[in-house]
Each structure stands twice: as C-alpha cells, then as structure tokens.
Design a protein that fits this description.
By secondary structure, the protein is an all-alpha fold. It is 76% helix and 1% strand.
C-alpha cells in the first residue's frame, strides 16, 4: 500500500475520532485536512497546488452557486411555518377528523408529518414539534407508547425524502456535480444535466409510498390490537361535522396551496428550485401573518384579518404564472391586460409582505425565525467549505483512485458496489448528520458509481431513503434522540427503540423495492421533464 493511501486511511480515522470526541464538524473537516495536507507536503507526498484550488471551490461551489441559495430560503419557510403554529392547528383539525376511528390519532400524526415534511423539510424540528404536541395526547388517550413514539419518529423523518426538502437540494447539487465528473471521466463532454428538480420529481412517488405504508401499518395494528390504538368517543371531539370540516379546511387548505405552489412550480417548469424557494419563503411569511396578530408583543393570538393576506398569497401565485407565460417588460411588450394584472398582484404582494412582516415582528416570531435561519444556513455553508478542503486533500493523496479501485473490485459488479456503498452510508448515518455525509461522502463515492452506468436520479433517491432509515435505527438514530429529549419521563427509552423497529423494517423494505424497481424514481422525472 502506497504512503498516500495510508495517509488517506489515517486521515479518515482521525476525522471520525475528532467527531466522536465532540469537535464541531466544519472545523474538524477543514482542520484535519489542512494538517494532513501540510504534513504530506513536507514529506513530498502531497502537491500543494491542490490547496490553490480552494478559493475557486469556495466562490464557484458556494458563493456563486444559485442552487444553494434555495437552502436558506427553504429553511426560512420551514422555520416560519413551525413558529406560526401551523403544526398545532393541523394536528388539532386532523385529530377531530380521524379521532373517532381506531388508530385515528396515529393516522393524523402520519398525515401531519407528511405535510410538515413537504413544508419544513427539517427533521429535528418536525420530530420535536410532533413530540411536544401529539405524544402527550396519544398517551392520554390510551395509545401504546411504543406505537405512539414509533409513529412520531417515522413521520418526523419524512422531511428527508418528501420534496421540497433541504436534503434533496443539497444532495441534488452534489449528485449533479458528481454526474458531470463521471461523464467527463468516460469521455462524454456534453452530458445531459441532472437538476434538483429531477430529484424532487423522483422522490415524490417513493415519499408517498412510504406515507401509505406507514398508514397501512397503523391501520393493521389498530385492527389486530384495538387497545393499542383506541378510538376517541365522538362526544369528546365536540362540534358537528360541518364545524369539523370547516376547521379542517381552514387548517389544511393554506399549507397545501403553498406546497403545491412551490413543488408544482418546479415540476411544471414555471420556476427553478431557487425561485420556488423564494415563493415558499414569501408564502410562509404571508401565511404566518394571516394566522398571527400582535397583542402585547409577546403573546401569539389568532388573526381575524387574514383574508387580505390570503389574497396577497393568491396574487403571488398569479404573478408567478404570468411571469412564465407573458413578457411583462413594459418597454418591450407595452401595457396590456397581463401587465395590468401583474401590477395589481404586485400591489397585493407588497401589502401582504409588509403587513405580515409587521405582525410577525410585533409577536416576536420574526427575530426567532431569522436567528434560526441564520444559524442553520451558516452551519450548512461552513460545512460545505470544510468538506471542500477535505475533498481536495483526499484527492491530492490519491484517495479517489483508491475508492475507484476498491469499488471496482467488489464481487458482484455494480450490484455489489451499490450494496457496499449503501451499507457504508447507513452506518455513517448513526454518527454523522446528512449534511456532513452529503458534502463529504457523496463527492467521493458518487462519481465512481455513476461511471458504472447507474442512473443519477435513482442513486440520489436511494441515498436519501438510506439516510432517512439511519435517522430511525437504534441505538444512534438522531430522531430517537430528538424525541427522547421532549418525551415524558413515563416513556422509557427502550419503548422508543422498540416502537421504531417496525418502521425501520418498512423503510428497509421500501429501499429494497426501490433497488429492484428503479422506475419508481425515474418514471415521474421522465414524464415531467422528458
């Protein structure tokens, strides 16, 4: 084994040792890479010119990357919806709608988890929110703690796979770069691009299948063991059916319209993921302003004047469609009916955003949302910079050749290499967050796999579902830790672990089905984007 390969292995071991010791991920990646790069250069093993590519990596892959602008916008959208009590109202409405059925509360948790996944995309926030809001109610209604905690953890991790998702944005960017590198390595200098929108379309069907499997499992358990998921007596739900449907519609329609506007604009080709993320951020702000009204600057109260703001949200959607269908530049097209409608929509939008900003600022929500958005976004981009330096040193020491040789020599060819990579990513998911895995591991292994004629969309979705499964798997699944932090003391940790095992089995079965039938991930992108 060459000295460079030995140094690559030692560098990986040192990195994981530092991470397990509790050092910050971003500084660990950059610090270990810099130390090993300088040490290797001193002994003539490493070419220091690799380091000179670092400024170009930062400006090219981060500062001037329009796709990654979607990350803070989607984070803002998710945090704003979380802070504006959308989840609380959804759970209350869905509980009233399905509570009279066996397992109705569990079905409500899965449904709300899927909606939050499509609107927030932040696993930790979703699990914590669902744990605080729904777990005490489910336990008080007589639900088996194992079933209740398993449903909450599983539904909370749907944000990994259901678009629009931060995971898919970051993963899509890395897969796109890896696909270009792989195609150039085999002599194709004009490859067809792979976009974040392709991954969004590819993940939609698997995500819906997972939601359906979760609900099917809950219904089977409620049928076989009625005591584990009892129904709520109708008289305790209160209100007649007309009132229940009115509340359900009020809670469901605005978030669903926002999700359709964001995801539908991408799939329909009206907007890029970055533009759709901007629409989502503006829409979430308007939705929060319509639901919250200031009283004393600290308390959150229901707003009674939300109709004009909902009209502003509708104007945002109409404006997006007009901009796609008509030339609205007055100097070229003149002032026609589309331009007049666009002016009206802009006026509504300015009013809606201004009013919403004032309301969410007076209630104290805006400051908290901006702080969380800044913290999460800064973490993502600092990890990106650290991972870029780590990748440069890794390649400079010949690590990419070592990985290519190792995967090429795995028994079973493409299938064997894919199984090994899935197992490695599954194991890494116990210790690292998806951001670190996406920025560090994917650029190393994805080009090698894509040179084996693997569909990049299928590879990206397989990786996303794999990381979602590792979030659930005991004993180190992140979702388990999130829920343990907010669960009542009466719920034992062993019950949480045992509760997620059936959902982990469902996840693994879904991963196996995706592996056997890649068309589940490639059919919709081929229909939508051709």
């Amino acid at each position: 084994m060459a000295i460079g390969e030995i140094l690559v292995i030692v560098m990986f071991v040192t990195t994981f040792a530092c991470l397990l010791a509790g050092f910050p991920v971003a500084f660990t990646l950059s610090g270990v890479a810099a130390l090993f790069g300088l040490f290797s250069y001193a002994f003539g093993v490493f070419d220091i010119t690799f380091m000179q590519a670092m400024p170009q990596r930062i400006f090219g892959n981060a500062m001037w990357n329009e796709v990654l602008i979607a990350v803070p916008l989607f984070v803002f959208m998710g945090v704003m919806l979380e802070r504006s009590k959308v989840a609380e109202e959804l759970l209350e409405a869905m509980g009233r709608l399905f509570g009279a059925l066996r397992g109705g509360l569990g079905l409500s948790v899965i449904a709300v988890g899927a909606l939050l996944a499509a609107s927030t995309g932040i696993v930790g926030a979703t699990v914590v929110t669902m744990g605080l809001l729904s777990l005490p109610t489910m336990l008080r209604r007589g639900y088996d703690p194992k079933l209740a905690t398993g449903a909450i953890c599983a539904s909370g991790t749907l944000g990994q796979i259901i678009p629009p998702s931060i995971v898919l944005v970051i993963l899509g960017e890395q897969i796109s770069n890896a696909y270009v590198d792989a195609q150039r390595a085999i002599g194709n200098w004009s490859p067809e691009p792979v976009s974040v929108g392709d991954l969004f379309a590819g993940a939609l069907l698997p995500g819906m299948v997972l939601v359906g499997l979760y609900m099917l499992y809950l219904m089977v358990v409620a049928w076989l063991r009625p005591a584990a998921a009892p129904a709520i007596p109708r008289h305790e739900l209160g209100g007649d059916w007309r009132e229940v449907w009115r509340r359900t519609g009020r809670a469901l329609v605005p978030p669903i319209v926002l999700i359709i506007a964001v995801l539908g604009s991408i799939l329909a080709g009206i907007a890029t993921p970055t533009e759709a993320a901007a629409v989502g951020a503006a829409g979430s702000l308007i939705l929060a302003g319509a639901r919250l009204a200031p009283k004393d600057g600290t308390r959150l109260e229901r707003s009674t004047g939300g109709a004009p703001l909902y009209a502003a949200g509708g104007g945002l959607i109409v404006l997006m469609i007009l901009a796609n269908q008509f030339d609205l530049v007055v100097a070229r097209a003149g002032i026609g009916a589309p331009t007049v409608v666009a002016f009206i929509c802009c006026a509504l939008l300015v009013y809606g955003i201004g009013t919403s900003l004032w309301r969410v600022w007076r209630t104290g929500v805006l400051v908290a949302v901006m702080r969380s958005t800044m913290q999460i976004s800064a973490m993502v981009f600092v990890i990106l910079i650290g991972a870029a330096l780590f990748s440069l040193v890794f390649r400079g020491l010949g690590g990419d050749d070592m990985v290519h040789e190792a995967l090429s020599n795995v028994p079973g060819g493409v299938i064997g290499a894919m199984l090994v990579v899935m197992l490695i990513m599954f194991a890494l998911g116990f210790f690292l967050d998806f951001i670190e895995i996406t920025f560090v591991v994917v650029p190393i292994i994805a080009p090698v796999l894509l040179q084996m004629d693997i569909n990049p969309i299928w590879l990206g979705i397989m990786m996303a579902v794999n990381l979602q499964t590792s979030f659930l798997t005991p004993p180190f699944g992140f979702s388990l830790f999130y829920l343990r932090g907010v669960a009542p003391r009466s719920v034992r940790t062993s019950e949480i672990y045992r509760g997620v095992i059936p959902f982990v089995i469902i996840q693994l079965a879904a991963l196996a089905v995706l592996g056997l039938f890649p068309e589940l991930t490639t059919w919709l992108p081929s229909i939508v984007f051709g």
